[in-house]
Design goal:
The protein is α+β, with helices and mostly antiparallel strands. Helix content is 43%, strand content 14%.
Length: 210
């Protein structure tokens, strides 16, 4: 078994996020041709998917994650966010399997615009993705806050359950304690009386002091 294009295509659907793979052109003629853009087109509404892509490079049978450097965080203007090219060496990156599931009249360019929010570069006019992560960070922060609230609610419910159980056990223990104490005290007195009778009262019971 080995990794193939279909696996990346399925993975993009699992994570609901595009995956862009850059690879040397000569590898496109080999069985391991990974170069391309893998879109989660199985999710028919692009708004249900994350539009910021995962960037990978593939060479010599290895995948390498790609990132970028920002001079300031966050960038002050939209133009300061990096552009991720979708056209390499004058050709648009392929979208493996996407056309099989996308609407018939959608071209690759339309797919990139819908699932990647791709735009035309102002200088060269090539298609690219502006990696503006402000909205994504805001959405992630909102989701994280919601999950923290849900977590705190669950923890509070569990604590209340444990407190109620502990309170119930404590009340039951308090109710049982006086009874057990009285029974233990009566039993102790009975045992003490038996010991006294066996060692003291009975040996001298037959003596007469007349």
């Amino acid at each position: 078994a080995y990794l193939a294009q279909i696996h990346l295509f399925i993975l993009s659907h699992v994570i609901r996020r595009p995956i862009i793979v850059y690879a040397p052109t000569e590898q496109q003629d080999s069985p391991c041709r990974f170069r391309g853009v893998y879109l989660p087109v199985g999710w028919q509404d692009p708004e249900e998917c994350e539009k910021a892509p995962i960037l990978l490079a593939y060479d010599s049978s290895h995948f390498v994650p790609l990132t970028y450097h920002l001079s300031a965080w966050p960038p002050h203007t939209r133009k300061e966010w990096p552009l991720i090219p979708l056209e390499v060496e004058g050709a648009l990156l392929p979208a493996p399997f996407s056309k099989l599931m996308a609407p018939r009249n959608w071209t690759e360019r339309r797919l990139y615009q819908e699932y990647l929010a791709a735009e035309e570069e102002e200088t060269e006019g090539t298609l690219a993705v502006r990696m503006d992560l402000r909205e994504r960070c805001a959405e992630a922060s909102k989701r994280l806050g919601k999950r923290i609230t849900e977590f705190n609610s669950h923890v509070g419910q569990l604590i209340n359950v444990f407190l109620e159980e502990g309170r119930a056990e404590a009340i039951a223990e308090v109710k049982r304690t006086p009874i057990l104490t009285r029974q233990d005290s009566a039993l102790a007195r009975s045992l003490q009386q038996e010991e006294f009778d066996r060692h003291v009262s009975r040996p001298f019971s037959n003596l007469s002091f007349n």
